[in-house]
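Structural biology now treats backbone shape like a language. To illustrate, our science desk offers a sequence and the tokens encoding its fold:
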Amino acid sequence: MERKKEELEAKYGLPREVKFCERCVISNQRPASAVEFKHTAASKKVTMNIDSEGICDACKHAEEKERIDWKKREDELVKLLDKYRKNNGDYDCLVPGSGGKDSAYQAHVLKYKYGMHPLTVTWPPILYTDYGYKNFKNWIDVGGFDNLSLNRNGKVMKLLTKLSIENLLHPFQTFMLGQKNMGPKLAMKFGIPLIFYGENEAEYGNPIADNATSLRDKSYFAMNNLDEMFLGGVSIKDLIGKYGLQLADLQAFLPAGHKDLEASNIEVHYLGYYLKWTPQESYYYAVEHTGFQARPFRTQGTYSKYNSIDDKIDDLHYYTTFIKFGIGRATYDASQEIRNHHLTREEGLALVKRFDGEFPDRYFKETMEYIGMETEHFFELCDKFRSPHLWAKANGEWKLRHTVNKDGADD
């Protein structure tokens, strides 16, 4: 017998009542806080805020962007760059990225428009796509940049990816941690005082209060207590004791020490705070200036071809967000394009209905073979991680209880 709505468990700290933004197509089930070193799938406790008028934080941020004096913001950027610009041949800023549309745009603009000398650094994908690797090479060769790629221990990466799926249903957890922590550590090592990330996280619905000009609180990137940290849902202690790893095997994934980072003079900034950020415009810019090419086919789970395409596991990552939060890749893409007035909400609704939750089978078998997981086990994990307040099973098939198109099992 079906439990009453108020009795259905809401996993991961998600709101029990599902709400959808009245302007875009996102729901309040979207995790909105940064990825953390936690040991449960409930590591993301802050979710998308949708106010009393039914508007999400990301849409409110899009409104704010239209009221910003971007010439004044650019003047602020030039002042910041003048403070750190070097003329002795040394690198004066660091740009983490993969050579995708956003990092290609930010590195090129900083070097060729504002006269900076960036060192680009890359945390490579778990499984490069052919076109993703070509875009990476074009970023360096066509765009013209020095680059350091941190090719971490592949054996450890496979293990942590598998553990992330088994314990968190999050194929990208350890990848995202390594990617986030690499920039500050390399900046400290090479004495580079300025790091630029791309778009402000408020673009996607993270709390606006957390998205000022810079990350002044560098503890976001720092490590306080190694004993309290987890990778792939497993403590560092158990990764060493039970899985036979050494601390040195894990260093690439771990953040810098808190004291060392706080003592450094490194500043971390979002270029999207200073320059109006539009993903589609970044795409066109990257095509023109760094030879970026879109995927030769539609990305499964959505309608686009040029967003997050360098890793074969990326598609699976978005499928797992659909399982855990009821939000698929088409929802993310359509919401962003609605905010930038490239789609109407009605068009977004149709795209979500058509593509959200489509299973990404193109690279699935290769991914499972790479990490050593049986396909049946993956689907068992998917069922385990479905939250009862989001999913209902009818006639042997899973169906969302609520959808933005109001055709869910409980709508």
Q: What stands out?
A: Residues 37-44, 208-213 have pLDDT under 50 and may be disordered. The first strand starts at residue 93 and ends at 96.
